[in-house]
Design brief:
The complex is a heterodimer of chains A (162) and B (292).
Chain A: H1 3-8, H2 20-23, E1 26-32, E2 35-40, H3 50-63, E3 68-73, H4 86-94, E4 97-98, E5 133-136, E6 144-148, E7 155-159
Parallel strand pairs in A: 2-3, 4-7
Antiparallel strand pairs in A: 1-2, 5-6, 6-7
Chain B: H1 4-10, H2 42-64, H3 73-101, H4 107-112, H5 132-153, H6 159-187, H7 191-204, H8 216-223, H9 234-247, H10 271-286
Helix pairs in contact in B: 2-3, 2-8, 3-6, 5-6, 5-7, 5-9
Classes of the chains: A alpha/beta (162), B mainly alpha (292).
């Protein structure tokens, strides 16, 4: 198996139903002989899983026969939820986590302030009901918001757009 | 790895290098291109990274002190996540400061071993919050100012600062919304919540002047296209503040001119910073190099 294929299959420690490739944080895998340079990018500045991800990548590649592994971090361009692959979105939904919509884009001017709940419709990943409400903008991790479905009354997590 | 094994993997005691203090995860900028732009004074750049890094570090610590004390579980999580984002920004900035200064220090030495007079944060982040209204009032001021600052920093001639700015904008947008929504809810709420929110807004205003005062380091680096002159952020800040105050039905007293002597950027701090550092640094100083 190529180093790129091995790295792409490593699971994310906080969203283990996704691979690093599904999540879009695997930016490059460069192979030269038995040496591999893997480039990753953090989802959030404070992501506490970076070290674990580095260890998991190094371990998987060593097991596949790559003796010299270097993991590099890039900050730019900054990660966006738009990089979560279509397969990744399907896996999130299958696990009961609502996948993100398109990330907000700003042509120019200051970042707009949001004073009310977002009006965009987010469907319930459990029962499919089209309208749900936000309970909190932050959840078990920075990348997820907590929502509630008025139809099936179940709470669920939504990967918020950044 | 199955989901059930995730926690087990995180608590693998054969590899405590993955925990944050005294660990192998010592360089959050590993692999990032860290050259310094031509013509930029290394001392100035290091000082500027300390300013923005210390703002985030001390604000994060004040927010962390609310964890287990928040009014609801959802706010507990929000405050912890906001504190974590800011801690991440602080780590990147302190690492950059250490690297640029090249004096053999690292982010841990800068966070744990400096005395109060060597910190460069603005004094806004030092005060202890008297109640939850004070927390959200200060967070609104801090996030509104920092969001404008990070957004302008994306155009910095220093590629590391530009990258930190671009990541931070996405995070602090959510911090500002969180604080603004609470200010509106409390200000436009009951008579009691309105009164306490009004008192909190009045109390934080005198601390805002310092945020827009240009330090000579910022001035030199702004001319080199590296730093943001904070005076240029005032209009955006005032606009957002007025919008939130109006929605919250709050009419805080007009801003008064603060004293314009030396401030946090010069290492002149309030007594509250010493309390924070006693807690933040106590373990690292009493057990130098300790790891577990």
């Amino acid at each position: 198996m190529t180093a790129a294929a091995v790295a792409a299959r490593v699971a994310d420690p906080e969203l283990p139903m996704l691979t690093l490739a599904d999540l879009g944080i695997l930016r490059a895998v460069d192979e030269a002989g038995d040496r591999v340079v893997v480039t990753i990018t953090p989802t959030y500045s404070g992501c506490p899983a970076m070290r674990t991800i580095e260890d998991d990548l190094t371990g998987a590649l060593r097991e596949a026969g790559y003796a010299r592994v270097e993991v590099r971090t890039v900050l730019s361009p900054a990660w966006t939820t738009d990089w979560i692959t279509p397969a990744g979105r399907d896996k999130l939904a299958a696990a009961g986590i609502s996948p993100p919509g398109p990330a907000p884009r700003r042509a120019s001017g200051p970042v707009p302030l949001t004073l009310g709940p977002s009006r965009r419709s987010i469907a319930c990943p459990q029962c499919g009901h089209a309208e749900t409400e936000e309970i909190a903008a932050f959840s078990a991790t920075a990348c997820r918001a907590l929502r509630r479905c008025p139809a099936c009354r179940e709470p669920f997590e939504h990967v918020k757009e950044i | 790895m199955s989901f059930d094994a995730a926690y087990e993997a995180l608590t693998d005691h054969d590899d405590d290098a993955r925990w944050a203090y005294g660990t192998g995860f010592a360089d959050p900028l590993a692999g990032v291109d860290t050259a310094v732009p031509a013509g930029v004074d290394r001392g100035d750049l290091a000082a500027y990274c300390l300013m923005l890094g210390d703002d985030a570090l001390i604000m994060s610590h004040r927010l962390q002190q609310w964890v287990t004390r928040a009014p609801e579980l959802e706010d507990e999580l929000a405050i912890a996540n906001i504190a974590l984002d800011l801690l991440g920004q602080a780590r990147l900035l302190l690492t950059r400061a250490a690297e640029v200064e090249d004096a053999g220090l690292d982010e841990d030495a800068l966070a744990y071993l400096r005395d109060a007079a060597d910190f460069r944060n603005v004094r806004l982040v030092e005060r202890e919050d008297a109640d939850f209204a004070h927390l959200v009032a200060r967070l609104l001021v801090f996030a509104t100012w920092r969001l404008a600052l990070l957004d302008a920093l994306t155009a910095s001639a220093d590629p590391v600062l530009a990258a930190i700015g671009a990541k931070g904008v996405k995070e602090v947008t959510y911090h500002r919304d969180y604080a603004a929504q609470w200010v509106v809810r409390l200000g436009d709420g009951t008579e009691l919540s309105h009164e306490r929110m009004r008192a909190a807004a009045d109390a934080v205003l005198p601390l805002t002047d310092e945020l827009f005062r240009t330090h000579r380091t910022e001035s030199r680096l702004a001319r080199a296209g590296v730093a943001v002159d904070p005076a240029t952020l005032r209009a955006e800040f005032d606009g957002v503040w007025a919008q939130v105050m109006q929605a919250a039905n709050l009419h805080p007293a007009a801003r008064t001119q603060g004293d314009d002597g030396p401030g946090g950027r010069d290492g002149v701090h309030t007594a509250a910073l010493a309390d924070i550092l006693a807690e933040l640094q106590g373990l690292a100083r009493s057990v130098p190099g300790g790891a577990w």
